[in-house]
Amino acid sequence: MEIVKTFGVFVLTALAEIIGCYLPYLWLKQGHTAWLLVPAAFSLAAFAWLLTLHPQAAGRVYAAYGGVYISVALAWLWAVDSVRPTVTDFVGVVVCLLGMAIIMFGPRYA
What we know:
Number of domains: 1
Order of helices and strands: HHHH
Largest sheet: none
Number of helices: 4
Strand content: under 5%
Distance between the termini: 24 Å
Number of strands: 0
């Protein structure tokens, strides 16, 4: 159950970060309203808060989070930008998720 919870929090964290960065992109590059900066700020605050929910050391959490972020970013690429990831993208996601699992759930020696 810990694995599912950890992965779920990482996915929510990645979504918060991507949304927090995507909304300013819409304003700066596509001419949408500057009011998008308000939910972007809340989303980035949620991103920072979500990273604090893990009991492991911060550096370990940041390192492992990167693997999940990559997979969520490629899912965003497909769902929002309508760009289908390549086979090598999918292979890269598998490698990143394996790395995340090793970092987060590997044995700890003191």
